[in-house]
Amino acid sequence: MGIKTYAEAGVSIDKGDKFAQFIASLKSKAVSRSIGGFAGGIELDISKYKNPVLLSTTDGVGTKLLITREFGVYDTIGIDLVAMSVNDLIVCGAEPLNFLDYIACGKINDKILKEIIKGIVKGCEDSECTLVGGETAEMPDVYKEDDFDLAGFCVGIVEKDNMLPKKSEIKRGDVILGLPSSGIHSNGLSLARKIITEKDKVGRATLLKPTKIYVKELKKLISTNMVLAAAHITGGGLEGNFVRVIPNNVRAVFNYASWKTPDIFKKIMKDGGISESEMRKVFNMGIGIAIVCHKENVNNLLSFARKERIEIVTIGELK
Questions:
Q1: Cα 245 vs. chain centroid, distance in angstroms?
Q2: How far apart are CA 200 and CA 207, in angstroms?
Q3: DSSP 3-state helix, strand, coil percentages of the chain (rounded to 5)?
Q4: What distance in Å separates the CA atoms of residue 279 and residue 276, rounded to the nearest whole number?
Q5: Check: CATH 3.90.650.10 for 167-318?
Q6: Residue 35 above 90 pLDDT?
Q7: Which residues lie across from 253 on neighbouring strands?
Q8: Domain boundaries, the chain
Q9: Per CATH, which fold does 13-162 belong to?
Q10: DSSP letter (8 states) at residue 52
């Protein structure tokens, strides 16, 4: 066959090493100095915990990758990647600690990968966690030259007694509050892309808006001890995700008219002739996080949120 080296087979060790060096050189408090080793981590101060619990999450960004490549905009998809994992941790009450990324591609393209990493670092900064390492896999026989895929992994810590949800304390009459989404986030893109065609550049560009990271806001809200449960609204919509954090003896009743539905969802629904029930099943419809608190605590929690400039709205109740 005439192939004598790894590079001739399509894999560049030098490019991979240089990319790792680039990540390590980024001047950010969110980038660990241990990058480049066989494993990465941070010092763990457990003095403030009696019974610390480590929680782990992993996720990707789905077919949002295709929109990223379509527009040649690569500096936001890393934010999405971090958001999908850290939001899952914080709704459990866990403070995100470590983040790792996995990038698989057909060929290492420095320009693209550097933009992706910048987004990942920004996401880590926004969620107050540390990028401690990752893996960049160049696989020309699996991916086409311009193809790439992303996965993220995150570890968080929480005091056992403070873990959410507190299902034993949730009862009928409790109120559901919602934190707005920034748009479509990273779910339902396979449907949205087929409805909003490539001819509609403005509509397609709206799909690029990165997933909102709720770590700082939820840390503050959870610190009040008034939050009984929190759900990250991803694929499955509000009802599909919220049911995961409440006990079986209650059901959620949402008032979909109580918040402003972003125009992107109205457009998908109208242009695609999608039923309202299908829209609610697939998309977040404008709510990125839903939380539960006792009715008697609602006014205090809303007042606290206003003081902290956290946008929040009452969206339903438990019956």
A1: 18
A2: 11
A3: 40, 20, 40
A4: 5
A5: yes
A6: no
A7: 317
A8: 13-162, 167-318
A9: 60s Ribosomal Protein L30; Chain: A; (3.30.1330)
A10: E
Specify the length of the chain in residues. Answer: 319
Q: Is 42 helix (H, G, I), strand (E, B) or coil?
A: coil
User: b/e for 30-45, b at 16 or more Cβ within 10 A?
Assistant: bbbeebeeeebeeeee
Chain Cα centroid distance, residue 17: 28
Residues 6+ apart with CB under 8 A from 219: 90, 95
Nearest to 153 by CA among 60, 289, 29: 60
Q: Among candidates 245, 219, 247, 217, which has minimal Cα distance to 231?
A: 245
pLDDT in tens, 134-188: 999 999 989 888 899 999 999 999 999 999 999 999 999 999 999 999 999 999 9
Q: How confident is the model at residue 1 (pLDDT cuts 50, 70, 90)?
A: low
Side-chain-side CA neighbours of residue 4 (13 Å): 1
Tracing tokens 């918040």 back to the chain, one arrives at 259
Strand order in the sheet with 229-232: 229-232, 287-293, 175-180, 313-318, 252-254
Is the bond preceding residue 180 a cis peptide, omega within 30 degrees? Answer: no
3-state secondary structure of 253: strand
